[in-house]
């Protein structure tokens, strides 16, 4: 019984799992922060492109 408790105490598999969970959570948080930072620039670029394209006249005939 003592050997079983000692083996359980010395086992580090759970610690490795916790490390991976923390690293994954950090990467997800970083990705969300990056998306929030880039979203404003993408909206601005989209609006500028739309404005420029609306300024062009499209010919619908071949005359």
Summarize this structure as a short list of keywords or feature phrases.
single chain; 63 residues; mainly alpha; 2 helices; 0% strand; rod-shaped
Commentary on this structure:
By secondary structure, the protein is mostly helical. It has a domain at 16-52. The protein contains two helices and no strands. The radius of gyration is 28 Å and the shape is rod-shaped.
Mean pLDDT: 87
Largest sheet: none
> What is the beta-strand fraction?
under 5%
How many helices does DSSP assign? Answer: 2
| H/E series | HH
Protein name: Flp pilus assembly pilin Flp
Organism: Aliiruegeria haliotis
Transmembrane segments: 20-42
Keywords: Membrane, Transmembrane, Transmembrane helix
Short account of what is shown:
The chain is an all-alpha fold. 83% of the residues lie in helices and 0% in strands. The protein contains two helices and no strands.
């Amino acid at each position: 019984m003592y050997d079983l408790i000692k083996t359980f105490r010395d086992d580090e598999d759970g610690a490795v799992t916790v490390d991976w969970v923390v690293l994954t959570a950090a990467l997800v948080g970083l990705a969300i922060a990056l998306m929030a930072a880039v979203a404003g620039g993408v909206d601005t670029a989209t609006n500028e492109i739309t404005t420029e394209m609306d300024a062009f006249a499209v010919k619908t005939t071949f005359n």
